[in-house]
Every structure is written in C-alpha cells, then in structure tokens.
C-alpha cells in the first residue's frame, strides 16, 4: 500500500485502516486489541481507561467514516456519532484558533480525529482521502494525483488487478485466479 498521507491526517487514516477488509484482521474487534492499537499510537492513558462502550463508539465511528468516504454513507448516523464527541475551540501559542478535543480518554482520541477532519476540510485535503475501489482491498489511501482522480490505493497492485478483470470480462475469457 502506498500511503503518502499528510501528517495532519495520519491518525485519521490509521483509524480508518484499523480494519483490513482483505484479510479480515480488525484491530478494533476486542478491547485488548483496541488497547494495543491505542498504545501503538502513543495514546497510553486512553488505552488504560478504555471501556467496551469506548470500543463500540470507536468502531461505529470508523465504520461510518469509511462508509462516508465510500460515497454510501448514512450521514444521519455519522452526525449522531460525531455529535456525541465534544470538541472545543482552543487558542494555539501563536494565537490561531483551533478545534481540539474537549474530553480525555478514547473520546479525546476520537475528538482528535474529528478535529483533524475539520482542519483537512478547510485545507482541501479531506476529499483526497479515499477508499480503494478494489472490492477486495477497500483500504483507505491519500490521493496525491494532480486532479484527484485516482481510484485505487496502488495502481500497481489494485489498479492492475481491476484492469485485468475488466479485460477478461470484456474478452469473455474465464478468470484464472
Ligand atoms: Zn487497493
């Protein structure tokens, strides 16, 4: 997978890719795994206090955001989830007003994710975070192409796979893989 995601969207991309559709591996499928994911992301205090309810919220938010990026999102559901996570306006040392989490723990980490999305929206980078069009891959990647029209996380792997499949379908050849 070619990531190349900007620093500001790193946590967002990492949360969205905490499930691997191809292998079925999911870092958010149990509390111990979720705690490890949080620790791996430098969120030790959030990991220590994480509850089953936090895990459910994190997974629901991740899945709703993935649906949103896929274009098939339920915005009412996403709004409801995002609305339950408190954000506050803070003033950075240089005087800039920024959105920041208003809570500690897992809700704070999810608040960081939402604040980063709002910032990315203003910077024009949110629309470049996409779900790979390959139905088997579905990984989230950052589209660095000039016109923002990339459809696959990797042209080399998923793009070619899809092109080969389309070619086979058009030519009527039976799939070999
Ligand atoms: Zn892909």
UniProtKB/TrEMBL annotation:
Residues 128-170 form the Zinc finger CGNR domain. It comes from the Bacteria. InterPro entries: ABATE, ABATE_dom_sf, Znf_CGNR. Pfam families: ABATE, zf-CGNR. This is CGNR zinc finger domain-containing protein. It comes from Planosporangium thailandense.
């Amino acid at each position: 997978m070619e990531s190349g995601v900007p620093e500001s969207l790193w946590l967002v991309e990492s949360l969205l890719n905490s499930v691997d559709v191809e292998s079925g591996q999911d870092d958010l499928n149990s509390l111990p795994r979720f705690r490890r994911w949080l620790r791996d992301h430098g969120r030790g205090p959030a990991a220590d206090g994480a509850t089953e309810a936090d895990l459910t919220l994190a997974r629901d938010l991740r899945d709703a955001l993935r649906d949103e990026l896929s274009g098939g999102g339920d915005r009412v559901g996403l709004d409801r989830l995002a609305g339950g996570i408190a954000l506050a306006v803070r003033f950075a040392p240089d005087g800039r007003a920024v959105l920041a989490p208003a809570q500690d723990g897992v809700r704070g980490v999810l608040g960081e994710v939402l604040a980063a999305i709002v910032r990315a929206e203003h910077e024009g980078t949110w629309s470049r975070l996409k779900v790979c069009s390959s139905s088997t891959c579905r990984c989230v990647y950052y589209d660095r192409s000039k016109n923002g029209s990339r459809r696959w996380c990797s042209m080399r792997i998923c793009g070619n796979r899809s092109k080969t499949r389309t070619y086979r379908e058009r030519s009527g050849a039976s799939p070999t893989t």
